[in-house]
Amino acid sequence: MKKFKLVITSRPENRITQIFPDSISTHVNIPSGSDVKPGDSASNDIRVFLKSRLDAMGVDEAWVVRAIDHLVPRAGGIFIWATTVADFLRLNPKVRFSALELKDDSDGLETLYSLYSTVITTLFGRGLREEEIKAVTSVMGAMTFAKQPLDDDALIKLPRVKSRDMLEFIRRGLVSVIDPGPILHFHHRSFVDFLLHPSFSQCLGELSAIQDRALHERQLAVLCLSTMVSSALHFNMCKLKTSMIRNRGILATEKSIISPLISYSSQFWADHLVQTQCEEILMDAVKFVIYEKLLFWIEVMSILGKAHEVSAILKRALEWPALAVCPEFISYNAILKLPG
């Protein structure tokens, strides 16, 4: 029998240490923050990385040396700090480096959060217009609480986002903390942690609504349900000619006909619904989906290969207080509770 080693890197979170206790794994602590000493492998790797990135920016060698000597100790061995600061400095490096020099030194996550604060403040700037604040908080809130990354076609439908130009404004503002590509997605979980940390609202109070989970869960619930009650969800989504084709399975090309927004809405509408307050407009939308679009929704879930999740999603929806006491849904509740 061949042996192999499985290496897993993670922050020391309780759920990780519970799954991999000392009895079945060997824990290796990787130093960070003040525990990182000059000359450590992590610092040397970060120095080489930053040297390569800064040299490519076309600035003079003396400035590169000074910048690296200042940045490497502050990275504290945290590579995501180094990649974020390199992306941040890419445009107008000397001016943006000056903004970093003004920050007090700190250790660990404080260093990373301080960097994120500087990035957001610099790229978005102070004094955003009211409509910009609403759009930024709406999009970043959706990115924070969505179950999967949403594409521009979905984000443009959020209630406070009015144009693709606004999305491009937000994309430019987040360029140092998002993955490259067409879908807005934060490149590291630590940035989401920063958005939800008390220090975020303290230093960026105008964007504090990003932390309002109830607000963003509701807008995501509205997005999902409005998509499902619309003509976007309809009979025979893939225009299959016969049931024989359905029985033989759905090809990848046919699955691609299902838009990302329909796919997302079909899978996660209940997860967002149960996080909202009871509202008549939401109740009406749920009733319409159940009474008028139920078979179309099941068809989509089947095409996605997730028909087995339909029952669980309905059970999840019935956790919403407005449905739990609604006589019209008692029969659904009873059926879903049957064994098997």
Q: Whole-number radius of gyration?
A: 24 Å
DSSP strand content: under 5%
Q: What is the share of helical residues?
A: 55-70%
The number of domains is: 3
| Overall pLDDT score | 85
Q: Specify the structural class.
A: mainly alpha
Distance between the termini: 39 Å
Number of helices: 20
How many β strands by DSSP? Answer: 0
Listing every helix as H and every strand as E from the N terminus to the C terminus, the arrangement reads HHHHHHHHHHHHHHHHHHHH
Shape annotation? globular
Assembly context of the chains: single chain
Low-pLDDT runs of 5+ residues are none
Biggest beta sheet summary: none
Write a concise synopsis of the structure shown.
Helix content is 59%, strand content 0%. It has helices spanning 14-19, 41-55, 61-75, 79-89, 93-101, 108-124, 130-145, 152-155, 164-173, 189-196, 198-203, 213-229, 243-247, 252-255, 260-273, 280-292, 294-303, 310-317, 321-324, 330-336.
